[in-house]
Design goal:
Structural class: alpha+beta
Helix content: 40-55%
Radius of gyration: 30 Å
CATH topology of the largest domain: 3 helical TM bundles of succinate and fumarate reductases
Distance between the termini: 54 Å
CATH class of the largest domain: Mainly Alpha
Number of helices: 17
């Protein structure tokens, strides 16, 4: 039953948020027409009102508004700690501010329409709002706050969707342009009408008395403030039946029912690895239950899927998903010797890393074993160093960094400090430079090589975890994840086709190049669901002309 309610709650929260986002987008688009004329704004307003002021539209809009607000208060009540990422804190703060910013506008338009039937148009609204700079400014702030809250909510929903990486730039552009144009239309249209304190006909034609509307506004303000205060107060009251979580160093943290183990750690200031931020998207927070396993609830579907994927034993659970119902003792799987002891959260978080969209290049020297057999060891080392020098210079000149050299291969990363679009263009430039550099090496060592040096490269772009991996002085900044594995597999795919480069279509599209006229292959990557569209390039120098156009459009 609890699982069904949680699923229903998430679906209602998402559905109501999408409905409100659609209404807000329509409303702000209406403001944009202020750049044309007030008549254009009024024409679109009446067209939109045919639906939004109809019975179905009213039920959908205000039902979504009430549902979203109630579920937001419920999530605040269920939250066990205020430690959270800045984006999440901003989303919650903006969400709580929105009702207070919109009360005056809603009462002056929709409530009055419901009471008197008088349809207040844009000429009247703009005159009232621009009668004082305070009212005009408050409405502009409300617009920005509503839009920022909505964008953050959509980002949290869409960030893990496969298509978001491809269309993210378009979404970001829309999120920036619409409020700018909406505010511009609002200011332009507002300044075209002479401001008056209150229209002379305000109480004529059966309109609602302004004093009545003021009382309604005050009542709504009071109810909102009282409701939010009651939720915060209820959340602060300790729940009965405290549960004790015991850590490896013997520290005991008492928590209320409903807390997760991860929230228990954070509320007590105990470092606890969680790369994904406690959303169940990774397994770094997992713990081994050493006592109290029989008193724990069964894992929910999301947790079960992750545990099954990592082949976790029966006594391992995800700390971010586990809400204990009885006392338990835990031992973390990662960092067990440090958790709850001397390490600080900053050190743990830095080591855990962060997720970022990057471009990855794998480069490997072909037939190296035969080459080493036919040359003296010192000559082989000398040749390898020249080869690595060529690879390193090509990568750094393009804007990337060498992650590591493995035997006769190299791993390069792009995008550690830039966007994935720029990183993809840099990776293509590096591939071109590597191909040219190998040709130069072949000319210099013609007399010493029975056959020219050949390289195989694989490239892919997507999300990866960037962090320090290793031990002691052997620790270094590197990247791990599906994107790295895919790039490595593409390097092998290039060898199979006797080509210099196998590059994913995703990277090429990120770089702004078209793949419509290029033959592609859909290959399966071990451990990856589905296939990866891949392009085979036999001569990596052939992409240089295309890349110059991208580089000119996206200067580094």
């Amino acid at each position: 039953m609890k699982r069904d309610f949680a699923t229903l709650r998430r679906k209602l929260h998402l559905t109501s948020g999408i409905l409100l986002a659609v209404f807000i987008t329509c409303h702000f688009s209406n403001h944009v027409l202020g750049l044309v004329s007030i008549d254009a704004m009024e024409t679109m307003r009446r067209a939109l009102n045919l639906f939004w002021r109809s019975l179905p539209g009213t039920v959908l809009l205000y039902g979504a508004l009430l549902t979203h607000f109630v579920l937001a208060l419920h999530s605040i009540y269920r939250r066990r700690t205020w430690r959270m990422p800045p984006r999440e804190a901003l989303k919650i703060g903006l969400g709580l501010a929105i009702p207070f910013l919109l009360v005056a506008h809603v009462v002056g338009t929709r409530v009055e329409f419901a009471l008197s039937g008088y349809d207040v148009g844009y000429p009247q609204i703009l005159r009232i709002l621009w009668s004082t700079n305070f009212d005009a400014g408050r409405q502009a702030v409300a617009l920005l706050v509503v839009w920022a809250h909505g964008c953050l909510g959509m980002w949290y929903w869409l960030r893990s969707k496969p298509g978001f990486q491809r269309y993210g730039l378009l979404a970001y552009s829309f999120a920036l342009l619409l409020p700018v144009l909406s505010l511009t239309g609002y200011f332009v249209s507002g300044r075209t009408l002479p401001p008056v304190a209150v229209p002379q006909s305000y109480v004529l034609d059966g309109r609602t008395d302004p004093e009545v509307l003021a009382q309604i506004r005050q009542a709504i303000f009071f109810v909102l403030a009282l409701t939010i205060a009651a939720v915060l107060l209820a959340r602060a009251v300790p729940s009965r039946g405290r549960i004790r979580v015991t850590y490896p160093d013997g520290r005991i943290v008492p928590i209320s029912p409903g807390y997760t183990v991860l929230e228990a750690s954070r509320s007590a200031g105990i470092p606890h690895l969680s790369i994904c931020g406690g959303n169940g998207r990774c397994s770094t927070c997992r713990v081994r239950i050493t006592a109290g396993l029989d008193r724990l609830p069964n894992p929910k579907p999301a947790e079960s899927a992750t545990l099954h994927r990592i082949r976790a034993p029966y006594n391992v659970r995800l700390a971010c998903q586990l809400r204990p119902t009885g006392d338990l003792t835990i031992a973390p799987v990662f960092g067990a010797d440090r958790m709850g002891l001397k390490a600080s959260p900053q050190t743990i978080d830095e080591a855990a890393g962060h997720e970022r969209n990057i471009a990855v290049l794998f480069c490997d020297l072909r037939d190296f074993t035969q080459l080493a057999q036919k040359h003296l060891p010192f000559d082989t080392v000398f040749l390898l160093n020249r080869y690595f020098e060529t690879i390193g210079a090509a990568v750094e000149d393009a804007g990337g960094v060498i992650d590591k050299f493995i035997g006769d291969g190299a791993l390069a990363l792009f995008g550690l400090n830039t966007t994935v679009e720029v990183a993809s263009a840099q990776a293509l430039a590096a591939a071109t430079r590597i191909a040219r550099g190998i040709e130069v090496l072949n000319r210099h060592f013609t007399s010493e090589l029975e056959k020219p040096l050949r390289v195989a490269m694989g490239m892919h772009a997507g999300p990866a975890i960037i962090g320090h991996i290793g031990y002691g002085k052997a620790s270094a900044l590197t990247a791990v994840g599906d994107t790295i594995n895919a790039a490595s597999r593409l390097e092998g795919f290039a060898k199979e086709y006797d080509a210099q480069l196998a590059v994913s279509a995703d990277l090429v599209r990120f770089a702004g190049l078209s793949v419509e006229d290029t033959q592609s292959y859909h290959i399966a990557i071990r451990g990856r669901v589905g296939t990866l569209e891949t392009l085979i390039i036999h001569d990596a120098e052939a992409i240089d002309a295309q890349f110059v156009k991208v580089d000119a459009a996206n200067p580094q």
